[in-house]
């Protein structure tokens, strides 16, 4: 009995001291137990916070809303996951889930196209773009029926030149014809890339804004890597800038 009384007295004293501390800080016990919205860790891409499907899943597991930063970029897969799991995305106390993409910063939008020879690889690259968080617009072709590659290279090139899309990808059998075609459009710097090195140099040294691939040259898995490097590599500028400016000046004669 004495032991039970001792335990009871100690418990009462601890609770009393805790209550006094709460009163001193003007913090209610109930507020400490409330669930807070989940704020994801910083995944920075070009100085902007990248929100992925994993962030949405974490909020879903915790049973709370996902609260994001003002400069957040959100992937299409993250948006789909939020809708599937009924997770609210909140910015400054305003629910944005239903209003995307109007009120959220969009990540890069890619124009993609191919002829019949590049159709199958195009479809696989579209799936890769979606899974890695890029938005895209498909300019065709939409089957393996025979078509002319210039039609699709021109469509992609014009989308990039107009600013409708940030970069472009065009696929035909060798990638060469599409590059020649795309480069006829003012403002386009299209590069044929067959491996990771050429993809890196095309962006870092040449500031290429359209990648052309040869479906008969580049295997699918390597094509994924070529696309990844092309889209993630920044133009180095510096000594390369004056050379690119000389190329751009040639557009004045078009």
Task: Describe the SSE topology.
Layout (H helix, E strand, L loop, with lengths): L1 H23 L4 H5 L10 E2 L2 E4 L1 H10 L3 E2 L5 E2 L1 H10 L3 E3 L2 E2 L13 E6 L4 H13 L3 E4 L10 H13 L5 E6 L3 H7 L7 E3 L3 H9 L5 E5 L5 H13 L6 H11 L5
Parallel strand pairs: 2-4, 3-5, 7-8, 7-9, 9-11, 10-11
Antiparallel strand pairs: 1-2, 5-6
Q: Can you walk me through this structure?
A:
The protein has 254 residues and is of the alpha/beta class. The chain has two domains: 22-107, Rossmann fold, CATH 3.40.50; 109-253, Ribose 5-phosphate Isomerase B, Chain: A (3-Layer(aba) Sandwich). The protein has helices at residues 2-24, 29-33, 53-62, 76-85, 119-131, 149-161, 176-182, 196-204, 220-232, 239-249; strands at 44-45, 48-51, 66-67, 73-74, 89-91, 94-95, 109-114, 135-138, 167-172, 190-192, 210-214. Strands 8-7-9-11-10 form a five-stranded parallel β-sheet, with helices on both faces. The longest helix has 23 residues, at 2-24. The protein is elongated and about 95 Å long. The termini are far apart.
């Amino acid at each position: 009995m004495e032991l039970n009384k001792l335990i009871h007295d100690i418990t009462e004293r601890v609770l009393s001291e805790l209550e006094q501390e709460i009163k001193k800080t003007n913090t209610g016990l109930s507020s400490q137990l409330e669930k807070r919205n989940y704020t994801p860790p910083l995944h920075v891409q070009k100085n902007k916070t990248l929100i992925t499907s994993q962030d949405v899943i974490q909020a879903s597991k915790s049973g709370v809303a996902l609260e994001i930063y003002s400069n957040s970029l959100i992937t299409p897969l993250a948006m789909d996951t939020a809708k599937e799991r009924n997770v609210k995305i909140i910015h400054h106390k305003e629910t944005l889930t239903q209003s995307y993409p109007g009120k959220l910063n969009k990540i890069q939008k890619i124009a993609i196209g191919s002829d019949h020879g590049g159709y199958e690889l195009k479809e696989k690259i579209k799936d890769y773009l979606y899974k890695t968080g890029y938005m895209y617009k498909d300019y065709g072709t939409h089957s393996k029926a025979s078509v002319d590659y210039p039609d699709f290279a021109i469509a992609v090139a014009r989308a990039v030149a107009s600013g409708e899309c940030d970069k472009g990808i065009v696929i035909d059998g060798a990638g060469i014809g599409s590059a020649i075609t795309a480069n006829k459009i003012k403002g386009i710097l299209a590069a044929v890339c067959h491996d990771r090195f050429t993809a890196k140099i095309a962006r870092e040294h040449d500031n290429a804004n359209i990648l052309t691939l040869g479906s008969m040259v580049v295997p699918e898995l390597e094509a994924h890597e070529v696309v990844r490097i092309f889209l993630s590599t920044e133009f180095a500028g510096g000594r390369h800038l004056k050379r690119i400016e000389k190329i751009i000046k040639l557009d004045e004669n078009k």
